[in-house]
Write a structure and sequence with these properties.
single chain, alpha/beta, Rossmann fold, 4-stranded antiparallel beta sheet, 7 helices, globular, binds adenosine-5'-triphosphate
């Protein structure tokens, strides 16, 4: 870990061009996420949340501005370096879990490490996967397939997969969208617990109730972060 912010965006813009139409999805976003923070970004449909998350996750590039991960500029990386950074620095948690049905829980979580540029030994993979599954209390389901688990359990495995590579930041996209409120709350409590253990989290949600779990809440409107973040009172 370095003393640099986990993530820093300066004057970031994204313009989509379709036929003759320009959509200014992000219009000069400035955002700093310090190591160890739990940040939420919320806003109405179409305000640019998914666009921002795709750029933060190095799945898409910005039109202008700068993006730094731990002080290193990543806006201009070529596709290979970008994939490498994505694998090492970013953990994704999606609304739809995105687990691979044919693989066991263990293999779903291990996959991130198997894709590492520098090979990770089988012993290290086993130990990292077991640690990650322990953190989300899913050690007892290692040999199950995703379709043998409840939605809440699948999301916990997805969180283990996001954690296993010790990323700089977890990017979390509407993590409770496919869960009932009981399982949704449990997933949010787990994220808060992981944050208290040191994991940096950036979560995008349209649900103000869940945004409240974050320590710092940003609001996005028409592609801009509006006003100062709301801080959660200590609980
Ligand atoms: N691939 C694309 N091509 C053209 N315009 C796009 C594209 N993706 C998004 N947009 C436009 O950019 C703007 C921001 O979209 P984005 O999906 O980031 O919003 P959002 O806040 O995630 O919305 P929602 O909550 O409904 O998912 C919208 O006006 C959208 O129509």
């Amino acid at each position: 870990m370095t003393s640099q912010p986990a993530i820093q965006l300066t004057d970031l813009t994204k313009v989509y061009l379709t036929d003759s139409l320009e959509t200014h999805a992000l219009q000069g976003v400035n955002l700093t996420i310090e190591q160890g923070e739990f940040v939420s970004i919320s806003g109405p449909s179409g305000c640019g949340k998914s666009t921002l998350l795709s750029i933060l996750g190095l799945l898409d590039s910005s039109s202008s501005g700068h993006y730094f991960i731990e002080g290193e500029e990543v806006s201009q990386l070529d596709e290979n370096r970008r994939a490498e950074f994505r694998n090492q620095k970013i953990g994704f948690v999606f609304q739809s879990f995105n687990l691979i049905d044919e693989l066991t829980v263990f293999e779903n979580v291990a996959l991130v490490l198997r894709y590492r540029e520098l090979a990770v030994s089988e012993t290290d993979i086993r130990s990292a996967v077991q640690d990650a599954l322990k953190k989300v209390e899913m050690s007892h389901r290692q040999q199950h397939k995703p379709n043998q688990l409840s939605g809440g359990q699948q999301q916990r495995v997805a969180i283990a997969r996001a954690l296993v590579g010790a990323p700089t930041v977890l990017l979390v996209d509407e993590p409770t969208g496919n869960l009932d409120s009981k399982n949704g709350d449990a997933v949010m409590m787990l994220l808060r617990e992981l944050n208290m253990q040191g994991t940096t989290i950036c979560m995008v949600t349209h649900d103000p109730r869940y945004a409240d779990f974050a320590n710092k809440q940003y609001h996005l409107l028409d592609g801009k972060i509006v006003s100062q973040p709301t801080l959660r009172a200590a609980s």
